[in-house]
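Input chain follows. Return structure tokens only.
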Amino acid sequence: MTRTSGPNTLTFIYWAFVAYLFLPLAMMTLMGFKDSQFIGFPINEWTTDWYYTALTDPTIRSTFIYSITIAVVSTVLSLFIGTWVALLLGPTRFWGKLAVFGLMCLPAVVPGVISAIALRIFIRLIGIEPGMGAIIFGHTIHNVPFVALLVMARLSSLRQSHLDAARDLGADNLITFLRITLPYLKPALVGGTVFCLLLSFDDFVRSFFLGGYQPTLPVLIFAELRSGMSPEINAIATVVLLLTALGGLWAERSMRRLNRS
């Protein structure tokens, strides 16, 4: 009796958590197919007009391209900086390494509002105007720690004998990195790429504080919500959710395939 009650309770808690997590998302998706502007049940007729309106709206399309551009540029910069930071903090031993590691992780643990306010003040001091450049700057600073941690975790399992063998065969440090270290880091880099893309694309607080007249997609959705909820907003959110889920599944599958190879 006691042995079976434990698993049953855990199973109930698990499925209750799944329902708590996915039920609001399912309701949001259903509201995107409602035939009227009133958000709520019942749904008398189903329509895809809201998706067509959202996908053909030039403002939404330009905002989507704007957000994607910011996400891609900030991800490339985050991968470059985060990888070299990980190479510095991974195998290298030097005085003050723990302090450098703590400073590197700081942007990831500081509350978003505090980070956004600090970045807003800083870009003014260095002469960067609010807009795309400022948003890319803020997203890169926030994303670098996540890339560095992923790469450092992957580096910890790299055998030193492989690097020593490459050097014994005449490879210098650059060739060793390009031929041995970089291919070994591919799973971490793929995961970091998707993670940074999703973080940057979905970021609202930093984009709101650092943005100019052109809003990113989360900021645009927030502005539309202030004038009232509509099925068009649900349709936009559903498309973003679908793209995010597909990106996450692709990253998970790619990382597993690279780890097996």
